[in-house]
Amino acid sequence: MLDIGVGIGGGARQAAREFGALVLGMDISANMLSIAMDRLQNEKDTRVRYQISDALEYEFPANSFDYVFSRDGLHHNERIDIVMRKIFHWLKPGGKVLITVYGMGHGTLSAKFQAYVEKRKYFLKTLEEMVEITEAAGFENVQGTNLTKRFRDILLDERTKTLNRKNEFLEKFDEGTFNSLLNGWNDKIGFIDDDNHNWNQIFATKPL
Q: Where is the Methyltransferase domain (predicted)?
């Protein structure tokens, strides 16, 4: 399995631990991978490997992987269409791709949301556009799922937990950091309610 944008490696280690998968995790962040390798060293799981590389630039041989997974990383690529074609090339016939990405909704985009997207260097697509891109790359049985309600619930839960533990939080961090986190959650929830910010999932198969 290839994990694109593996970050600190939680998903890769879980796939190895729960499903026995052999996982190669790639990420462009050396800082993230440093943490991932430290945690892997503690678990001593030889089924997981990491490499610093950019999916848009790196090349694997054709038919290298049974599965490709990416959680919330591909929206950082301006040419996600190219990445999806490369994923298709890297997968074996019958291989599966499962990705989640931040997406753009169908509401009128606020200036605040557009500034948020630009600051974070996101390149957002609607769910329909992601399905079209995946089909154009050659995949079949493409399933697009809008996970935005779940995303909103996660944000609300994180905000509530932090508010309930404010005193404990302020023992380690300052008030400014607390307010910054709170404002960030409030902004994202507002973007979701305005149907600006979506969270989407794509699952598809490479034909035999």
A: 2-95
Task: Give yes or no: residues 18 and 104 share one domain.
Answer: yes
Q: Note whether 177 and 133 are same-domain residues.
A: no
Extended beta strands in 55-90, E state: 65-71
Nearest to 6 by CA among 151, 18, 30: 30
Per-residue model confidence (pLDDT) at position 44: 85
How far apart are the C-alpha atoms of 84 and 208, rounded to whole Å? 17
Distance CA 16, CA 47 (A): 6
- Can you tell me the distance from the alpha carbon of 30 to that of 19, in angstroms, rounded to the nearest whole number? 27
Question: Whole-model pTM?
Answer: 0.92
Tell whether 155 and 174 lie within a shared domain.
Answer: yes
- Which tens digit of pLDDT belongs to each residue from 137-159? 999 999 999 999 999 999 999 99
pLDDT at 110 over 90: yes
Same domain for 171 and 143: no
How confident is the model over 5-50, as pLDDT tens digits? 999 999 999 999 999 999 999 999 999 999 999 999 888 889 999 9
**Number of domains forming the structure of the chain:** 2
If asked whether residues 104 and 160 sit together in one domain, one would say: no
Closest CA to 131 of 122, 121, 119, 144: 144
Exposed e or buried b per residue across 30-62, where buried means at least 16 C-beta atoms within 10 angstroms of its C-beta:
eebbeebbeebeeeebebbebeeeebeeeebee
33: CATH? 3.40.50.150
Specify the 3-state DSSP secondary structure of 54: coil
